[in-house]
Design a protein that fits this description.
Distance between the termini: 33 Å
Radius of gyration: 14 Å
Oligomer: single chain
Helix content: 40-55%
Strand order of the largest sheet: 1-3-2
Number of strands: 3
Strand content: 5-15%
Number of domains: 1
Largest sheet: 3 strands, mixed
Order of helices and strands: EEEHHHH
Length: 121
């Protein structure tokens, strides 16, 4: 398995409004794309979240297509994965816990990090 992580301009995200995204190719390789937030630590935290979420979805047979369909149709408040009806809600919540631990381990403020994510155009 090959795992690729890249930083991209926010406007080039595959799903508008998302700061991170993952996809699988036909061979099971994972590609993670993270919006550039100007701070490598924030970018790394999003990348780790996306990778954990993708790995857990793969383990639990939640397809990228199911996740994409839910994300593209989501009209609620906040992140789509936080919605209990998301097909990947459990995987997303676990990935968020890992993300929060990483932010804390780097001595960063979760609220500052969240503000940086929200500040993206």
């Amino acid at each position: 398995m090959k795992i690729t992580i890249e930083t991209i301009p926010h406007r080039l995200q595959r799903i508008p409004g998302q700061v991170g995204d993952w996809t699988f190719d036909g061979e099971g390789n994972i590609s993670v794309r993270v919006s550039d937030m100007g701070d490598w630590r924030y970018i790394a935290a999003v990348a780790v979240h996306e990778l954990v979420e993708a790995l857990l979805c793969r383990r639990d047979d939640v397809s990228q297509e199911e996740v994409d369909r839910f994300d593209l149709g989501y009209r609620g408040d906040g992140e789509a994965g936080d919605d209990r009806s998301a097909p990947y809600a459990r995987q997303h919540c676990f990935a968020t816990a890992v993300e929060r631990m990483l932010i804390a381990a780097m001595g960063l403020s979760w609220s500052d990090y969240a503000a940086a994510v929200e500040a993206l155009p």
